[in-house]
Prior knowledge:
The chain has 1191 residues and is mainly beta. It folds into nine domains: 1-97, no CATH class; 167-258, Immunoglobulin-like (Sandwich); 263-342, Immunoglobulins (Immunoglobulin-like); 391-476, Immunoglobulins (Immunoglobulin-like), CATH 2.60.40; 482-574, Immunoglobulin-like; 582-673, Immunoglobulin-like, CATH 2.60.40; 706-774, Immunoglobulin-like (Sandwich); 785-875, Sandwich (Immunoglobulin-like), CATH 2.60.40; and more. Helices cover 7% and strands 46% of the residues. Strands 1, 2, 4, 6, 7 and 8 form a six-stranded mixed β-sheet that branches. Strands 46, 47, 49, 50, 51 and 52 form a six-stranded antiparallel β-sheet that branches. Strands 63, 64, 66, 67, 68 and 69 form a six-stranded antiparallel β-sheet that branches. The protein is elongated, with a radius of gyration of 48 Å.
Amino acid sequence: MGGKHKSIIPGVTILQFVENIPEGCNAPNILRKPLPLTKPEGKETLKTENFSFSFSYLTWRKNQIKKLTISDAGYYKCTASNEYGEAFCTVNLIVAQGILDCSIPHSSEATEKKEEFSEEYVWEILMEADKKDYEKICHKYGITNYRYMLKQLNQMKKEREEKQAEVNHVSVRVETKKDGSCTFGFEMDLKNPASKIFLYKNGEMISYDTEEMMRHYLKQVGKKYTFCIKDLQPDDVGMYRVDVEDATVFSTAIEESAIPVGFTYQLSDVKCEESEDAVFECASSVPLVANWTFGSQSLADGDKYQIEVSPDSLMHSLTVKDISPADSGLYTISAGELSSSARLILEGDNLSGKSSKHGQRRGLHGSDLDGLNKLKSSQDGTNNSARHFKTGLSNVSVRKGQDTELCCVLASEMSDGCWYKNGKKVSLNIYPSDKSEMVKDGTKHTLKLHNVQEEDSGIYRFESDGRKTEASLLIEEPPELDQDVLNQLRKKPITVKAGHTATVKVPFSGKPPVKATWSKDGDELLDDRRISISNDGKFTRLSISNCSRKDRGKLSVKLRNESGTTETFVADLLVTDKPLSPQGPVEVVESSEHCIAIKWKPVRDDGGVPLSHYTVERQQVGRNTWNKVGDVDKDTTTISTDKVEPQKKYMFRIWAVNPEGVSESLVSDAVAAGIKGKSLRVLTPPKIVTSSSKAIKLSWAAPRSSGGLRLTGYFIEKRKKGSNIWNTINEEPIPDLQWIVTDVVAGQEYEFRVIAVNSSGRGEPSGESESVFAREPMDPPGIVKDLRVTYSDYSSISLAWTPPLRQNNDFAEGYLVEVKSFGSTTWTRCNTAAVNMTSYTVKGLKEMGKYSLRVTAVNSGGMGTPLELDRYVFAMPPAVCPKFVLNKSINKFMVIEEGNSIRTQFSFEGSPPPEVTWLKDGLPLSKEATIINTTENSQLFIPASQRSDSGIYSIFLKNFFGQESFDFEIRVTAIPKPPGPLTLDENVPNTVTVSWESSWDEHLDDHLYYVVKKRDSSRTAWHTVGNNIFNNRFTIINIIPERKYYFRVLAKNDMAFSDPSDTKEPWSISKKRDPFTLKLPTYKEVNKNRVPVFSVKLKTHIVPSGCDVNMSCAVEGYPLPQVTWYKNNIALENNRNYWSTNVCGVCSLCIFGASPNDSGLYTAIAENSLGRAMCSTTLTITAIEPVPRVC
């Protein structure tokens, strides 16, 4: 049997139930003991973490606690057990009155803090804070019972000091460095050097390394320990705690102020031409409030400059519109001590295309799409680059030492450009001629790199005419083991003696950090008291101390880094030891008056070294001395001795010997000289003749030999089914070959065996008989009832039935299930042994196969009559029409903030599983949308939503038995920007008309409207006077004269209100009235004379050849102007191919069946006595390519 011993975890005890545990199994162990807790009434109870055991069951040895009370305080025992052992530990629970006392009202700020921070988090802060800060912390987190807090805090500190008895720490140093890292330095003296050190963040364990490859790593120099966190990010803000085993050494917090502030993406110089727009962009590591300057001039958002900030205040952009030579210079963004600058460089005029670009931009700026183009420009600063580049650079990953290339395609062959790496121009100083090659092939520009190394990684940029495209080059260097060392290790096994230390060291190369894991025979090896795995970045080492035979096997190592994974066999580990004892029992081969021959089984484990021989000794029963019989070869497992006396009994012991030592001995039973017990063994087990509730009749066969002595009879032994204890039934030998056993209990199941006896004693027992119940003979059971199919799918059919009616002694002990396929006459049994349940699943069926099934009840009396299903059954699921399973979380209208992900999931049912189709506004989804389908649900996922993702989404389900659909609307929007400045006018007495400029988001969101509020200057509350306003003007009535008012306008959409736009000065209406006077109007004769003006100008036309062309324009003027048409400055008055009309100033020119010769510049000139006006357009007639005739 096993024993009781302590775990490597302090405070945990392991009780092992068995001595030998099967390979692959183990007794349970608790890796993290629960910490003593102090809980207020009503809080949750204890918990443990990280259990390691096989098929364990975790129980708390005390009733479950739903709401803690004072009576629940005390020690609790936690137990984890399985069939091989049990692990348990105790923990103390202190129940106290709640600290957050409600007797004093809390402020709203304190209430929010209580909801945001857990109570354990507050206790950690108090444990590490100075006494002078207690009051400020209590006020911050809403703690009002100050006296009770001090009492509990002192008690917790005392408990921590008791836990830290094994750790003597001297001082703690917390430092945040300018390079973006943070260190926790402390000195401590560990009484147990094998104690494990744990790092926690906000109560969750963080993995760390002892090398500087990971973000979290631990450095140790003597008694000095330093925890380091590299590259601090906003996610690293929180409470950190260092534990040694279950004792807390210290804890500290990293505040947001410790996160280094800087620009992750600096401003870049911009080159552009006159009248174009220039965009400067940068990104910061934390949200900033930044200012833009041009030289010494501060810039503000307006007509000339457009300043935009992303919703998270990390992205900043400045757009300089309609550039002129005066705009060239240095632009700077600054936030406190941080700043980033870039220059705006104005290039020479592009004579070939400047005029058309300028005209198109002016035309676009004058349209209603002006705001949309500005938004697109701010969201994607590469719009101009997209027109300049046909294909931009793409990110490239390449193995170290290989060749690679980066290429892009420009829109024009006339353009040229330069390559940059990490902001520096690529030249021969950076890359020699044999290292890189820059190739231009028409519009394609290629940078070829040969034999790339780690220093070649970075951001590569290609600039051309002020436009640029960027991509990253990532050098992949997966870990590789030293093949020469591996070949040397694989030549022969690594041999080590038991109790010694085995060490394997393998060099490797690869991009750090590289993580190494070792395995033995496919099972991963973990660090413990014997196994140590180290990795210093250049080699990995496995060390196993105090080796035993169980440590032998095939060792393999797995290396992993961000570039890939390598796993390979390293070597065979052989542990040598003294052999195990020979296997028993010792058999007597021969026993005569002058000779005894014995036989044993070979050793199960030779210790990893071939055996040299076996040593055998004998001892006469009754004496103390052992005499050596002799040594036999390792392949021989028999020996005989003639140095015996008749009728004397002897004992033998055998040792196995190898070069490592001598095994434990195998000792035989006493053997009498002249007796050959093997000849008395009954060859066949006894048979059951009859059975009843009172007696069981047995019979058996006599042995073939009586051992040369007279056979005196037989002894009968019995045992209960499942027991290991045999009881002899008869006191005297039975001379016959049959016997009636009457010492039985009705209903009990028994097994029997027989032992032959001669004058020298008992022989070996026979094999056990078949098990038999002590009960009256049974009749076969009846027929089962209510046979039915409960479930079916494509490979199985489940049956259920009711047991047959019981009459007298014919109850069913089990059931047999049989199956027959359609067209077959043979029944096949599904279960080899009868099942005692009234249900069964027939598996392994053919999909859509047609089967008949039947069930038969059986017992000891035989088989009953089978019951067959009344019809054939198909191997397929039940037919179910598609149907949505909707819950309360599914809404038909969802509002998503722009930039956030869209994730919606619909559950459904249907058999066979339906086909799922998604549509948006009746069309297939965009490439950015990802659909994840299973047999029970379908999920729509869009990682970064845009306003274009708004629409009506439809999901369709369809299978052979029907279809179903569901529609819902998703609106992607953002918090609207505030309206422009307000203008107040008194158009009607005692009213005020409020006018404002449109919000920047009005043209992007058709659900946006405005809300108007007013406030009396003598009051602080705002009152809504206008809601759901879709224009930019609202008139407020009932304005009291001589009273001052403030007005406010807010933009509102489906998501939220914008920031308000307020009047800066109060508004009031004076009571003074001008004297009433009547002024008769003076009428003057209207002068109708007007110079001709084209109110509607001609538009450009591009028409296929053979089509009719109709060009129209509208002209105003008095007297009515005379309109004349010209083509390429030639009048068209007498040309019959053209027909012109002038109806009330609407002038049209028609060309029937236009041909390419009609292309040209068309001009309409309107003249009257006061002047003339001219309007021109271009007509382009495109030729239609002839369709090839198919012969």
